[in-house]
Amino acid sequence: MNTVDFLNSREDLLSPGISACQGCMAELSLRVILKVLGEKTVLVVPPGCMAGAAVGGWNKSLGTKIPAAMPQLGNSASMLAGIKAAYDLVDPDVHCLAYAGDGGTADIGLQALSAAAERRDNIIYVCNDNEAYMNTGFQKSGTTPHGARTSTTPVGSVGRGKVNFKKDVPMMMAMQNTAYVATLTPAYMNDFVEKVQKAATIKDGLVYLHVLNPCPTGWGTKPENSIAYARAAVQSRYFLLYEYRNYEFTVSAPTKNIREPKDVTEFLQKQKRFAHLDEQDYEEVRRVVNSRWENLKKLAGL
Amino acid sequence: MENEYRVVYGDSGLYVLDTASWRTFRPVIDETKCVNCGTCLLYCPVCAVKKVDGRIQIDLSYCKGCGICRTECPKQAIMWVKEEE
């Protein structure tokens, strides 16, 4: 069955109307993940865009058709590990899913996540990476890229956007031998669905999925171009698609099959958060993008 | 004392927002160009696109009008019609 018919046949487990922005890719990713995992799933959504869009519930109602809860920002992984331990006594086939933002993963929730990976708790932890704290007004997070304008790294006579570089959380999780690590983006939906299906079969430890979700409101892009930006991020090797399992890295097809990578300017140029960058900054981004790709090639033995 | 908590499971207690009211333009399929490939179905963030008996249909009841279906359509088969008052 192809991906279109598969997704068409699955039930949408999210409320049809949630208050995510127009063109929000985090909403699409969550819907697809829930479609693939099915209704035997328990969802945990820490404060962030998706919890703000009522997935975690408002006023005694809930945004999902499956059980969902809102943990504290820092403890989604540990709370979910407890839920999983309880479900193991009743039905071990229940998928315990966390859908956290990049702030709740890379900054605030990192300790709980890393500890759960070390204990090899069998939970699925998805990081919705939109590269800043988008829900509270675009503050800088650990995964915000170099040079991006956010409300806490403004651009003016002194500041020139974020000074430091993006924290590579999937690589960090791979280096501590998490049971399964994968990077995904909704522009490559076949690859996306395959990875979530594979994640559902892993039973020996924590599954970490890192999803790059373009955010039209925060990135300053048009809603209709969200998928195009996700695709440009992969095609310019700004975001690398790969899997990690049992000390082995596998570069996924969309990244592996790039013959002529596009220039990073293709991805950066039309975003308002990068509008102030000049050729020197582009060169800096190119250098980082290149060294990350060279590093992955060595790890995957390409 | 009456319990004020509800069991929220399935459709009962589901939070539903009328997101269709956000829309300024609506997508309309040009049946002469559409080849029913389903690209719009893959990328619609609100899952408003369905495939019924092999034909693509757009359910406008929660469509936010983001326009992703229109940009991604490989055949340019989605027309963009302004919502009237």
Task: Provide structural commentary.
The complex is a heterodimer of chains A (302) and B (85). With 302 residues, chain A is α/β, with parallel strands linked by helices. Chain A has one domain: 3-Layer(aba) Sandwich (Rossmann fold), CATH 3.40.50. Chain A has 13 helices and eight strands. An eight-stranded mixed beta sheet of chain A has the order 2-1-3-4-6-5-7-8, with helices on both faces. Chain A is globular and about 60 Å long. By secondary structure, chain B is an alpha+beta fold. Chain B has a domain at 31-82: Alpha-Beta Plaits (2-Layer Sandwich). Chain B has helices at residues 39-43, 68-72, and strands at 25-29, 49-52, 55-58, 78-82.
CATH architectural category of chain A: 3-Layer(aba) Sandwich
| Structural class label of chain A | alpha/beta
The helix/strand class of chain B is alpha+beta
Question: Which value, in Å, is the CA radius of gyration of chain B?
Answer: 17 Å
Low-confidence stretches of chain B: none
Report the CATH architecture of the domain at 31-82 in chain B. 2-Layer Sandwich
Task: Indicate the topology.
The complex is a heterodimer of chains A (302) and B (85).
Chain A lengths: L2 H7 L15 H13 L3 E4 L4 H4 L15 E2 L6 H15 L4 E7 H6 L2 H10 L4 E6 L39 H7 L4 E5 L4 H13 L5 E6 L3 H4 L6 H10 L6 E4 L2 E4 L1 H4 L8 H4 L10 H22 L2
Parallel strand pairs in A: 1-2, 1-3, 3-4, 4-6, 5-6
Antiparallel strand pairs in A: 5-7, 7-8
Helix pairs in contact in A: 2-8, 4-6
Chain B lengths: L24 E5 L9 H5 L5 E4 L2 E4 L9 H5 L5 E5 L3
Antiparallel strand pairs in B: 1-4, 2-3
